[in-house]
Amino acid sequence: QPVAAGSGIPEIKCYLNGVKVPGVVRLRTVVCKAMGVLFSVAGGLFVGKEGPMIHSGAVVGAGLPQFQSISLRKIQFNFPYFRSDRDKRDFVSAGAAAGVAAAFGAPIGGTLFSLEEGSSFWNQGLTWKVLFCSMAATFTLNFFRSGIQFGSWGSFQLPGLLNFGEFKCSESDKKCHLWTAVDLGFFILMGIVGGLLGATFNCLNKRLAKYRMRNVHPKPKLVRVLESLLVSLTTTVVVFVASMVLGECRQMPSTSHSGNDTLDLQGMSEDVNSSIKTFFCPNETYNDMATLFFNPQESAILQLFHQDGTFSPVTLSLFFLLYFLLSCWTYGISVPSGLFVPSLLCGAAFGRLVANLLKSYIGLDHIYSGTFALIGAAAFLGGVVRMTISLTVILIESTNEITYGLPIMITLMVAKWTGDFFNKGIYDIHVNLRGVPLLEWETEVEMDKLRASDIMEPNLTYVYPHTRIQSLVSILRTTVHHAFPVVTENRGNEREFMKGNQLISNNIKFKKSSILTRAGEQRKRSQSMKSYPSSELRNMCDEHIATEEPPEKEDLLQQMLERRYTPYPNLYPDQSPSEEWTMEERFRPLTFHGLILRSQLVTLLVRGVCYSENQSSASQPRLSHAEMSEDYPRYPDIHDLDLTLLNPRMIVDVTPYMNPSPFTVSPNTHVSQVFNLFRTMGLRHLPVVNAVGEIVGIITRHNLTHEFLQARLRQHYRTI
């Protein structure tokens, strides 16, 4: 299951943004993810397990409410609820939040992570559901870890997989403060440096990812295995050589405390000091480099946060450099790997180095080294992933120290602004490398120079309310669209309602020359791009009326109101829209009636929902909503359909199953309004309908991507 490689956060971000990544929420994926991250972390690679936990939680959220799995076909439950993409997306949001909550013991941070980094479509009702799910995940993990590790079931002593411990100065040191207002200046500088380091990390990792896409992924799968073995071998050699050659033997810190120290601080100190490594050093000394390299990453972070002894600046500098390069190389190989903990450890070494330099060379004895290590971790992680609100809350909940809220928030904001000046966050970079059409939160201001007519696709593939089976099969087999407009041709209607030069409707007068048609839009584009012969353009687009007919005495508005309730015409042409049509045929006026999905059309064909030509459409069998959604989420494919069981001359009435009132926009709608409607409502297709009810184009996710809008804007400037 190749999609199980990496952290999984970019894939989940794409899924929650509305892009269905194949296999990302499969049962096989979560099994491979869990087993792979178990061995990659235990094997000593510089990877974390927090990212894969978020992915695993999302898979559980997607699969559990379905009560079925494609990997376990024999397990089937008749559970008719939550059978839509919107419900599934909400459960994936809750699962991702639960993964964050279990990893860091931060239920509120998990909820904000799902809101900030993942979900595109959010509502008030989803907030408390996701928070409750995160709380349940946190306390479930706490219950089992406390019972297994301490044997005291129900004590709830271990809130998450990663806990930063308690930050507290020794009561014997009266000069010590967790942080002061003077330290905020240093925190801002650390945020700037963290943003620069994060941008450098992302740039190097992007180049490595491009190299892998060109030279590793196209080759046999064995090459990926060999690359992972090479990274593992290099990591092992570097860790051993660096600890033996570059490590310093330092005096073992004393475990005795004054009577004023609290028992919690004593316990924390003894726990941290018990994890130091001697590694070929004499008695009563320890190897500072080996203490950082040969401990689990969580223990190494606690060493940098709470170690009584000091790490030399040289050791911290070398450790930071080696860990930076190796973690950058490791992230992206074909193993499940997270980035949170390696970034925290790398940043903690940077922060501890700053604290040592300030103490040794500037003489600031009041500073608390653990605070600077925490701020350094936040600065580097913020510079890599570019998260602000959720990361602040996660770090506050992990430290159980609310007073760190202000410095962490300031540091993360500065790191994000600094990094954004150079490149995007690591997850956005990997999303772009995969070519996923991810929609941002909003468009740029200059995009409002474009209208919906500038970005829509006017060349439509459509179906009629009553269409022959041979036409439906032809359309479905020759296109890959997931929805089709249901239309009727309205040349007769146009002659009736476009008498003279005006259309009167609800006391509003529309000039016919101002009503956009698909043919007129295509003419405008063709002339600007010079892609069609002028003779063809004249045949296609000359729609003006040469002689103005005298207005009729009848009330045109009354005619429209009467026609509004007439049944759909019984149209079943023998030919479907094709590329062989002339421009005039392809861009004929079409009255829009609704949208129907590909999955619905295939389901109707598979179940034989049709009627013969000599019968009424009322004789057509009717399917309930439960029957239409029975195959969700894996509907049958049109290419697997046995055509010998179908009579191609039979007719399908699609009107009972189409969406008769989808969201639509006017051709003159600003792009920013189109974008906000598309994103906030979670749409996949947005028809563009003019003032007389004709569909003139359709907008999909592809038409709203940043690259497409930029190309349209450049074309707009050239035509001005």
Automatic annotation (TrEMBL):
It is a multi-pass membrane protein. It catalyses: 2 chloride(in) + H(+)(out) = 2 chloride(out) + H(+)(in). It comes from the Eukaryota. The chain crosses the membrane at residues 30-47, 91-114, 178-202, 222-246, 314-333, 370-396. One of its GO terms (cellular component) is late endosome membrane. The keyword Transport applies. Residues 658-714 form the CBS domain. It is found in: Endosome membrane; Late endosome membrane; Membrane. One of its GO terms (molecular function) is ATP binding. Its main location: membrane. InterPro entries: CBS_dom, CBS_dom_sf, Cl-channel/antiporter, Cl-channel_core, Cl_channel-6, ClC. Keywords: Antiport, ATP-binding, CBS domain, Chloride, Endosome, Glycoprotein, Ion transport, Membrane, Nucleotide-binding, Phosphoprotein, Repeat, Transmembrane, Transmembrane helix, Transport. Voltage-gated channel mediating the exchange of chloride ions against protons. Functions as antiporter and contributes to the acidification of the late endosome lumen. The CLC channel family contains both chloride channels and proton-coupled anion transporters that exchange chloride or another anion for protons. The presence of conserved gating glutamate residues is typical for family members that function as antiporters. Belongs to the chloride channel (TC 2.A.49) family. ClC-6/CLCN6 subfamily. This is Chloride channel protein. It comes from Semnornis frantzii. The gene is Clcn6.
